[in-house]
Design goal:
The protein is an alpha/beta fold. The protein has two domains: 85 residues, GMP Synthetase, Chain A, domain 3 (2-Layer Sandwich); 169 residues, Vaccinia Virus protein VP39 (Rossmann fold, 3-Layer(aba) Sandwich), CATH 3.40.50.150. The protein has nine helices and 13 strands. The longest helix has 13 residues. The structure holds S-adenosylmethionine (SAM). The site of S-adenosylmethionine (SAM) has 20 residues, from β8 and α7.
Length: 278
């Protein structure tokens, strides 16, 4: 039985029909923490009971929280506890990779899982990756864990995310191939070294796009993330074409992919670009 149906059966004597309709259809799981996104206000009195039901239903879950929002370019989530243990730190395992994180400080979007998997497959042996928005290693760590010939440089300016990145590099035993860099990627991204640049944050600016170009050595890939309204899925194409006119490199758009629904009106997209600098 689907979660919503199951909850509706459990709550049928306690809620009216409108409230039953607004019960959540699902939650994300990071490590052993279940995360609900924006529980409807009309059922807020039942949150604790809802959390206890999830703890009963799923033995792998030890904590249930609600994520209300994310703040600033640090993407700090606003979390409130609903049920279970009083902690927000956990270890999430995916693609043989161990991510230590605190869900009250860091977002690790399950909606980006497909992108994490596709990068593992796309990368060729001996590549050098530049992850300009490294966070805790979300996109770049699984590539290194799954291919021992890859090296990565990851830039992160949030001290808390950076500390977890260092922990995760050690936990996954890639410290000889993963070089973390603390700072603003506009100033700290190394130049002329990478075969592939990950721009895994959809709020990046033109200065950061130029840093991505400068990070590439000779030629290579840029994976550029952005948000677009559903009616304007060609927005990244327009943006890249406008920038290309001011840049003396050959920039080819190879693919524009939908990663996930971001909001009722917006998609999170990834544009794959191949750049030749000569
Ligand atoms: C959305 S998270 C990265 C998510 C990850 N790429 C993924 O797909 O799951 C964006 C990260 O970029 C970092 N960031 C944003 N602006 C930055 C900047 N100018 N320099 C370095 N890091 C930055 C934030 O602190 C945050 O950890």
């Amino acid at each position: 039985m689907k979660l919503k149906q199951r909850l509706q059966t459990t709550f049928q004597d306690k809620m009216n029909s409108k409230q039953l309709e607004r019960l959540p259809a699902g939650y994300s799981i990071i490590g052993d923490i279940a995360i609900f996104h924006h529980i409807d206000e009309s059922i807020s009195d039942y949150k604790e009971l809802l959390g206890d039901i999830i703890l009963d239903l799923d033995p792998k879950i030890s904590v249930v929280v609600e994520q209300l929002n994310t703040l600033t370019s640090y993407r700090k989530p606003i979390i409130s506890r609903i049920a279970g243990e009083f902690r927000t730190k956990t270890i999430h395992r995916e693609f043989k990779t161990e991510f230590h994180l605190d869900v009250a400080e860091i977002t690790l979007s399950p909606g980006n899982k497909g992108e994490r998997e596709s990068l593992i497959q796309k990368v060729e042996n001996n590549e050098i990756i530049c992850d300009m928005f490294a966070c805790i290693g979300n996109l770049s760590l699984p590539i290194l864990v799954n291919n021992p010939s890859i090296t990565a440089y990851g830039v992160e300016w949030n001290q808390i995310a950076y500390n977890f990145l260092e922990t995760n590099i050690k936990a996954n035993k890639v410290e000889k191939r993963y070089y973390p860099i603390f700072g603003d990627n506009r100033k700290s991204t190394p130049i002329n070294f990478a075969t592939r640049v990950l721009m895994g944050y959809f709020g990046s600016d033109e200065a950061q796009f130029r840093c991505a170009l400068e990070a590439l050595k000779g030629e290579g890939w840029i994976h550029y993330h952005s948000l677009s309204s559903r009616e304007k899925l060609n927005e990244p194409e327009k943006y890249i074409k406008r920038l290309s006119k001011t840049i003396d490199y050959d920039i080819e758009i190879k693919e524009i992919r939908r990663i996930k629904k971001f909001s009722p009106k917006k998609y999170h997209l990834c544009t794959d670009l191949y750049v030749k600098k000569y």
